[in-house]
Amino acid sequence: MNEGTQVSGTFRKLWPHEQDLFRDHLMRLDRTNRLMRFAHGVSDSFIEDYARQMTDAGSTVFAYIEDGQVRAVAELKKLGDTWGREAEAAFSVETAYQDHGLGTELMGRVIRAARNRGVHLLYMSCLASNARMQAIARKHDATLRFEPGEVIGEIVPREPSYFSLLAEAVEDRVGFMMAVLDLQRRIVKAA
Ligand SMILES: CC(C)(COP(=O)(O)OP(=O)(O)OC[C@H]1O[C@@H](n2cnc3c(N)ncnc32)[C@H](O)[C@@H]1OP(=O)(O)O)[C@@H](O)C(=O)NCCC(=O)NCCS
After folding, report:
1. What whole-number distance in Å separates Cα of residue 90 and Cα of residue 114?
2. Residue 54 is part of which domain span?
3. Does residue 95 fall inside a structural domain?
4. Is the CB of 109 within 6 Å of ligand 1?
5. Rounded to the nearest whole angstrom, what is the distance from the C-alpha of residue 187 to the centroid of ligand 1?
6. 132 CA closest ligand 1 atom index
7. Is residue 142 a part of any domain in this protein?
8. H or E element: which one contains 115?
9. Tell me: the pLDDT tens digits for 66-101?
10. Does 136 fall in a domain?
11. Any idea what the CATH number is for the domain that residue 18 is in?
């Protein structure tokens, strides 16, 4: 438990021009967290490529941002060319920020986004040793399927409702304003 870390940032979607924030977050993951996130060890150049394709396949990326840095991320990915009945989710939280509820909070947003896109089955896979991920999945009523070395979590999102669509739309408007402010701050810093 990282008791020294205070979490006082905000959650919002990342925009395509923010690939570098996504990349920097993934780069800060240590060896163990990279292994947990990708199910195998990955190099810096793999992360560079991966981050460059952040929204290429139409993924939606939710981030927890503090002082202009992305400290945690949840990715909702389509399985196929368009949003269909099934989708996949993946999570990463930097070590100092783990065990502060960020993964749980991001999972809630991912499930709501999946619901709003008509997804009927949301998958997430993790290593069998990943107790934190399994704890979060259980909290969101996932069915956990144990396979050799890995665990597949399956969540069935509810049908979209007026309120789930409105909540996402309202957050997107606020998120857009925050993205503009973050961009302004970065431009001022760089000048
Ligand atoms: C898995 C991960 C996303 C969880 O994020 P997080 O912000 O630390 O998670 P939260 O704080 O929301 O919740 C963690 C839960 O795990 C529980 N937990 C922590 N260590 C645990 C352990 N050893 N055994 C069982 N449960 C444990 C915590 O008590 C907490 O549950 P609670 O809220 O009911 O008390 C994060 O640790 C991470 O990014 N890990 C590296 C990458 C990864 O594993 N990605 C998942 C595969 S895609």
Report:
1. 13
2. 10-119+160-190
3. yes
4. no
5. 34
6. 16
7. no
8. helix 102-116
9. 999 999 999 999 988 888 889 999 999 999 999 999
10. no
11. 3.40.630.30
Query: How far is it, in rounded angstroms, from Cα 148 to Cα 131?
Result: 15
The CA distance from 1 to 107, in Å, is 19
- State how far the Cα of 93 lies from the Cα of 98, in Å rounded to an integer: 6
* Structure confidence by residue, pLDDT tens digits, 97-151: 999 999 999 999 999 999 999 999 999 999 999 999 999 999 999 999 988 899 9
CA distance 18 to 79: 23
**Looking at the whole model, is its pTM more than 0.85?**
yes
The helix or strand, by DSSP H or E, that contains position 183, with its residue range, turns out to be helix 162-190
The DSSP result for 9-45, as a single string, is -EEEEPPGGGHHHHHHHHHHS-HHHHHHHHSS---HH
Q: Is residue 76 part of a domain?
A: yes
Residue 134 alpha carbon to ligand 1 centre in Å: 8
Angle in degrees, CA 111, 98, 77, rounded to 5? 30
* Number of domains the chain contains: 1
